[in-house]
Amino acid sequence: MTAPAVRSFASGAVRHLLEGFEAMGLDGTGLCREAGLAPRRLGDRGGRVDVALLCALFAAAETRSGDPLVGLHAAERAGLGGLASYVIGSQNTVAHALQMQLRYQVLLLGAEAVTVRSRGGMTFVALEMDPPPEAHRHLTEYCIASSCRLLGWLTLQAGRVGEIHFRHAAGGAATEYERVFGCAVRFEQRDNGARLSEATLGERLVSANQELAAQLDRLAHAELGRYATTAFRDGVALALRAAPLDGTRVRREAVARRLGVSPRTLQRRLADEQTSFARVLDETRRQLALMLIADPTLSISDISRRVGYADQFAFNKAFRRWTGCAPSAYRQQRAGKVAGC
Questions:
Q1: Residue 203: which pLDDT band, with cuts at 50, 70 and 90?
Q2: Per-residue confidence band for 110, with pLDDT thresholds at 50, 70 and 90
Q3: Is 116 helix (H, G, I), strand (E, B) or coil?
Q4: DSSP code string of 12-50
Q5: Is 64 left (phi over 0), alpha (psi -120 to 50) or beta?
Q6: Torsion (CA) 277, 282, 287, 291 in degrees, nearest 10
Q7: 204 DSSP β-pair partners
């Protein structure tokens, strides 16, 4: 059974990503602006950033840096931390840390996107991303490289990855991937993930602390409970993204049926989270538009229809509200053809 794909990142994790970009000489605030990500959202405790916005952020970073492996290189420089990471780091062994990662992954990834299974006498840790794999290449490489870096840091490099697999094709020289990961890297495989030996799973963590682990576990469990009670809007957004927008009117009743609730309940639960159906629909359209506009094979009218606007004038007006730019000017700016809107 396929695991649900990564849906969103905790705002704290995105701040660490921006640290990595800034260590590469990039302007983090400018990248957020280009990707349509309001920096103030990153200061919210418990805030989330949708995968579509992260992909737009990586695309902007690649354009500005000219680095086709920008996700891989950002992972080498990004900060390490956050509640889930501290829980992981306080465990006794790599195997125990992996158990905690599985338990609290939703705090970081917005879904139970990591699975573990045995293959050929080794343990394979897989990360599920939505197809097509090329659209999430930078994010996938960043996630896996960051995890491997954390593994090395927690074991003083004693914990070694046996092999890395990616569903996508290589974005650069294979030797550079092998330098970063310190092992063989295979592309166009069935899954994204890493092979770990029994010896690596048994390695003791240098930061192991059972008393601290118990305290952090209680905090993370409470945080998980808060996330579970405030994630209904994420479910609405997922239902909207799964719906055939394509220029048709989006009805609240149809989304409520997808979620198995009444329209009144849908409205009430969103109100409990200080939002509304109209706001979630607008945010979902914005994220989808920013992802689609990076595809040069799609015309502006195609994108307008795909995000649910039968009228291109209305789409252009909404896009200006979202980004401050007309869609065509935004696309030219992303391509480096103009300096700004």
A1: very high
A2: confident
A3: strand
A4: HHHHHHHHHHHHTT--HHHHHHHHT--GGGGGSTT-EEE
A5: alpha
A6: 130
A7: 93
